[in-house]
Predict the 3D structure of the following.
Amino acid sequence: MEQATGTASGPGTAKRSPLEVEVLRQAARLLLAEDADLPPERELDALTLQLRGHLELAIPVVEDLAERFPEEDVPRACAHSAVMAARVRLSRPPGRALASKVAYAQRLARSVSALCDHYENLTSVQPAVIAPDTAAFLRLANHCLTCPTCQTRDEETGANANLPCPVAAQLYGAYRQAVRWPAPAGSGRRLP
């Protein structure tokens, strides 16, 4: 009996196989194409599960690719933002009404499409460094999208509860510092 093995790239890590981008895009097109027909509710539920599976597969692959780029790199920052948005969409449940289910599935399809774009971009580009203030803002945004404290909602209104988060406050301070004192001209930083 043969056993499937992965090629190790380090202790305890397996090399990921590339995404089948066209398969993922085809599922997303079923809901995003201009001439797309609304599928029956059972098919919509099945398609939603398929899109969730595609996201769960694509998120770690795109994230791993992005990690290979320098921290201040534009494609890395954009890919991380798309990954965070996809995680937020996966964490929220669909509504009960058919229109809510359709809107939820379309949001998942947009995330699948975006991750496919980032996968293709990350496998074909050279690193480009972004400005320090932009990098600081992206670190703040990525934190706020995944932090349970920052994402806490008021039970009555559903609005953000604006709970104090020391990490967000520290990242905001770093962002404000980067905006006030940008890198001097000729410091080797390239803008997007």
Remarks:
- The chain has a mean pLDDT of 80.
- The longest strand covers residues 8-10.
